[in-house]
């Protein structure tokens, strides 16, 4: 290992030792959401009336707009998260744009129009060539001075908070902040991830379920690697395998809290699955949680005993110990998002050099320096995005389009969360905090 203070220890000597415990910052949101009230019916009716009027007006604007104004309007609608209201109109407009572009490849559109049209068509799975930008670059591949354009101005959005209010009240009833002080309280940040998967109103259950289970996974993660001893980890994994609340008494008190939380979340999931005629998914949910426990347990043994495996073995195990457990599809996204998360979390997970991380694992396995390892992780992420973009543009994947979109959105929110190789989930104040405030906290005018 590169870190000089990573001492080799006998595995039998560390089974009763707690890992260096990090003290995480409390949630930056306090009770701002859980105390929010939706009881004012008059105000709510005013919002609905205003939304209906804005929807009709936007529809008229969309049908009347042409050329660059049309592209800018479609971009704004999609950025606002209301494109689901105009799906047919947008698809028809983009089809016409694509057909007209093929007929007139030598148009004199500026860089703003060309780049916006290129991105929108690519996002909607039209095979547009990068050659459309050739007229804006010199022979040495540098931009022509006259080609620089201005950015499209930002616009405000109207977002309802009801789901977040209900979610934070659900979370508050468990009082995990006082019972599990070693664990991260990030249910609001988890909700942002749920929103990233599907923001449309009809996917309310999906958003809330993603948030609840991401917080569950976060607690499991922190229990295994930020507080429990290896002996306690083994015991918890064993009890988790049995999936029987009657055996909870053998666990230490803090693990009883975690186990009850898992069982409570699971029971809610069972009720919802039965209500929606989806009971067949229940065994898969249960097995996924068990699988997660096994993966966390194995990883923590590697770390505490300083017996890190080869990089490929580590990555295989991490497919089940990350913030989400994705199916093994032909789509390459889950494989490369993991290095992105590792780049962000490496600094706090190594406990000031006291414990090895996946970066140290890569350094040892490949025989490279830390700087080279980080550079190669960045390349893994960049190449992953290229593969995903190419696959998406082809539109021929055997994976259903809706699932591909969710995987793409997973990559996008991971990019935001671990921006600039920092862990925005653990410390959200710099990146995620302002984004969440802009979406769900700051007052917005009715008219935009």
UniProtKB/TrEMBL annotation:
Start and end residues of each Terpene synthase metal-binding domain: 174-321, 340-387
GO molecular function, one term: lyase activity
One Pfam family cited in the UniProt record for this chain: Terpene_synth
Lyase listed as a keyword: yes
Superkingdom classification of source: Eukaryota
CC cofactor: Mg(2+)
A Gene Ontology biological process term: terpenoid biosynthetic process
Residue span(s) of domain Terpene synthase N-terminal: 29-158
Recorded family membership: Belongs to the terpene synthase family.
Protein name (Swiss-Prot/TrEMBL): Gamma-cadinene synthase-like
Organism of provenance: Salvia divinorum
């Amino acid at each position: 290992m590169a870190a000089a203070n990573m001492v080799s220890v006998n595995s039998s000597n560390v089974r009763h030792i707690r890992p260096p415990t990090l003290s995480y910052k409390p949630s930056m949101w306090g009770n701002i959401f859980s105390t929010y009230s939706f009881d004012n019916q008059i105000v709510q009716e005013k919002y609905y009336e205003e939304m209906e009027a804005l929807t009709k007006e936007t529809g008229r604007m969309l049908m009347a707009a042409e050329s660059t104004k049309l592209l800018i309007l479609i971009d704004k609608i999609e950025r606002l998260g209301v494109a689901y209201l105009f799906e047919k109109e947008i698809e028809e407009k983009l089809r016409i744009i694509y057909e007209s572009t093929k007929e007139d490849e030598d148009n004199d559109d500026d860089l703003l129009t060309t780049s916006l049209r290129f991105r929108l068509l690519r996002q909607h799975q039209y095979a547009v060539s990068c050659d459309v930008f050739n007229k804006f670059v010199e022979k040495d591949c540098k931009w022509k001075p006259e080609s620089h354009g201005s950015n499209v101005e930002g616009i405000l959005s109207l977002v309802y908070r009801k789901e977040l209010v209900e979610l934070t009240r659900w979370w508050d009833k468990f009082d995990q902040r006082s019972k599990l002080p070693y664990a991260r309280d990030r249910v609001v940040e988890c909700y942002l991830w749920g929103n990233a998967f599907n923001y449309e109103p009809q996917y309310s259950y999906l958003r809330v379920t993603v948030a609840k289970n991401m917080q569950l996974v976060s607690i499991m993660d922190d229990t295994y690697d930020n507080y429990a001893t290896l002996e306690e980890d083994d015991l918890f994994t064993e009890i988790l395998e049995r999936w029987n609340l009657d055996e909870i008494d053998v666990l230490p008190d803090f693990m009883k809290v975690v186990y009850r939380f898992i069982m409570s979340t699971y029971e809610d999931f069972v009720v919802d699955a039965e209500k929606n005629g989806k009971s067949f998914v229940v065994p898969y949910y249960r097995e996924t949680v068990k699988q997660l426990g096994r993966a966390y347990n194995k990883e923590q043994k590697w770390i505490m005993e300083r017996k890190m495996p080869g990089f490929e073995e580590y990555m295989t195990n991490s497919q089940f110990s990350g913030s989400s457990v994705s199916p093994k599809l032909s789509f390459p996204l889950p494989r490369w998002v993991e290095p992105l998360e590792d780049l962000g979390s490496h600094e706090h997970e190594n406990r000031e050099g006291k414990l090895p991380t996946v970066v140290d694992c890569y350094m040892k396995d490949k025989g490279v320096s830390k700087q080279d390892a980080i550079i190669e992780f960045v390349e893994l992420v960049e190449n992953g995005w290229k593969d995903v973009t190419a696959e998406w543009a082809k539109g021929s994947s055997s994976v259903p389009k809706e699932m591909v979109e969710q995987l793409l959105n997973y990559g996008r929110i991971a990019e935001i969360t671990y921006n600039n190789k920092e862990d925005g989930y653990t410390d959200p104040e710099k990146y995620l905090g302002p984004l969440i405030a802009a979406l769900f906290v700051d007052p917005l005018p009715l008219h935009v």
